[in-house]
Write a structure and sequence with these properties.
Helix content: 55-70%
Distance between the termini: 59 Å
Number of helices: 11
Structural class: mainly alpha
Strand order of the largest sheet: 1-2-3
Largest sheet: 3 strands, antiparallel
Order of helices and strands: HHHHHHHHHHEEEH
Number of strands: 3
Radius of gyration: 23 Å
Shape: elongated
Amino acid sequence: MADIEEVTSFDAIDILENSLGYRFKSHQLLELALTHRSYQASPPPPATGTEADNERLEFLGDSVIGLIVCDYLYNTFPELQEDRLSKIKSYIVSQQNLSRWAESVNLGDSIKLSDSERLSGGAKKGSIISGCFESVIGAVFLDGGFESARRIVKKFLDETSFDAICENDAKSELQEISQERFGVLPLYRIINEEGPAHNKIFEIEVEIKGTPYGSGTGHSKKEAQKNAAEEALKKLHARDERNGK
């Protein structure tokens, strides 16, 4: 069995709470949130339904994070439609992104794991630390209410680069539509660039089967491509609405 004092020392808990910006009233609840199913408690909990690991809190935290993210995206991006918002949300609540958030507060240092799981690198496994992040947010929700959980998640959201997410999302969506409807990939081409080398403005047009569908400008080619893809998507969606699709 892993040494509980080593895995969840007061110092580790204190550092985690400082990183989250939240002090738990119930450290027992936080301990549960940090207990992975691989950890063998000693003595074992009585067979009375007592929770021995963080899986139920992970279930709760998943829904709490999802609601916070939906509310944040709805209010931050009033110009985006449901399909785009859904894709951005899917990225934010993905294992990959939640693992990144967990790593930023060194959550792996506090997780209670079995010796074998810890030795196999469990404290850095995306599936474990992302699930633990969800369980911690679930614990915050129970300990301090929705607003406490929202404040924590919002800090991570405020530090998220949505430009990169939206860029990839818009271009990916346009690529999917172009392949599905026209059987070809969209083509991006520079139609103008101006300004000094350190502050250039690029204008890029996106074509599908030789027909221009949108153009965009930006201080980088990627930014201009993203804006061109977004304009093309607006035109395609507007056409769908006119055709009753």
